[in-house]
Amino acid sequence: MATTLISHPPTTETDTRTRLPGLSRAQISEHLKSIGIEDKKLKMRTSQIFQWIYNFGVTDWDQMTNIAKPLREKMATHFSLARPEIVERQVSVDGTRKYLTRMAPGIEVESVFIPDVSKTGALCVSSQVGCTLTCKFCHTGTQKLVRNLTAQEIVLQVMMARDDLGEWPTTTDNRKLTNIVFMGMGEPLYNTDNVAEAIGTISDDTGMAIGRRRVTVSTSGVVPEIEPLGERTNAMLAISLHAANDELREKIMPINRKYPLKDLMEACRNYPGLSNARRITFEYVMLKGINDSPKHARELINLLRGIPAKVNLIPFNPWPESPYECSDWETIERFGEIVNRAGYAAPIRTPRGRDILAACGQLKSESEKMRASERRKLEKQAEVNSD
Ligand code: SAH
Ligand code: SF4
């Protein structure tokens, strides 16, 4: 029998069953077919199992009460519902939660849950282990790329956060995890296929049902992938801009040499679905004495002209031996006011989870191995900064 079955790695070194959680509907269907589920029942069975996995979050085959026991037993011999191992879970004083998950041997992935005052909460997910780009201000950029994450590994980050937050079934009211941001480790648009597939699974109405408008993909500016991302996912777009002239942007973000601002802004203007209701977020990290003067703010306004945009000002988060300092608070506020007066919302992103190195740009799986003295130094600094 011809089959298109994609092989998936075993659940763990000792459990050779295929793990289903994290897989797409099409992949689950193919796996069910491979164990002999007849064609005429395949669609119905796939829907049932998809719903148990993604709406109810079950981890035990016996919880699938609308499936007869013999079939449940058969499925249990081939497939696992287990989650990967959480290596470390940290909770910040501000409620931010950081997870370090071992997806496979040597593949350790960080995800951060950031609760918001407005009853929403975002999970910041990683798309790669490490990053090939070397933005000067980013900790992840100092970690060499290990590999792209699979779509399954991206979806599992969301499922595991929901496990931890007690958010199954999906229909529960007052959900805490309402949004997904691809702002963890790695460059999502160097892994567009897996990111797009993961967004398909995460947003499926019969499963976790996190709407596509609640999913934001952040890119450092991989120009040729921007339009395809919009076409394939309908996700919201965020651009890590950080400088509004090529000379400076090249210095702090080497990708600007390949895709200069003119091309980047052109891609933004062409982003599918762009409108005042669906603005692009431009992220701008505030680096003391580097990109934070009123002149820089005016440059930014000129660059954004005509694009439905909002600006997110991110206070720079330090990491061991980072080459920059964060701008003073008054400087950030003055910058924000200038941008604001030009008609763009420009909120200052409150640093979250600094005490557990979970804030933007601090993620790096090796941070777990950081020397205790370095960690203490940073934690002290974080306390001072949050006073
Ligand atoms: N690679 C993608 C996704 C990562 S998003 C991208 O670059 O867009 C992480 C966000 O945090 C990016 O906007 C990044 O520029 C920003 N960032 C990186 N290092 C930072 C730091 N030390 N302090 C504050 N923000 C940082
Ligand atoms: Fe990679 Fe984004 Fe960090 Fe740049 S800012 S090094 S693209 S993760």
Brief synopsis:
With 387 residues, the protein is of the alpha/beta class. The protein has helices at 25-34, 39-54, 69-78, 151-165, 192-203, 223-233, 246-252, 255-258, 261-269, 294-304, 329-341, 372-386; strands at 18-19, 79-80, 85-91, 97-104, 107-115, 121-124, 128-129, 147-148, 179-182, 215-219, 236-240, 280-286, 309-315.
What does it look like?
This protein is of the alpha/beta class and 387 residues long. It has two domains: 63 residues, DNA polymerase, domain 1 (Orthogonal Bundle), CATH 1.10.150.530; 288 residues, TIM Barrel. The chain is built from twelve helices and 13 strands. The strands form three sheets. Strands 3-4-5-6-9-10-11-12-13 form a nine-stranded mixed sheet, with helices on one face. It has a two-stranded parallel ribbon with strand order 1-2. α5 links the parallel β9 and β10. α1 packs across α2. The protein is elongated. The N and C termini lie far apart (66 Å). The C terminus is likely disordered. The structure holds S-adenosyl-L-homocysteine and iron/sulfur cluster. The site of S-adenosyl-L-homocysteine has 16 residues, from β10 and β12.
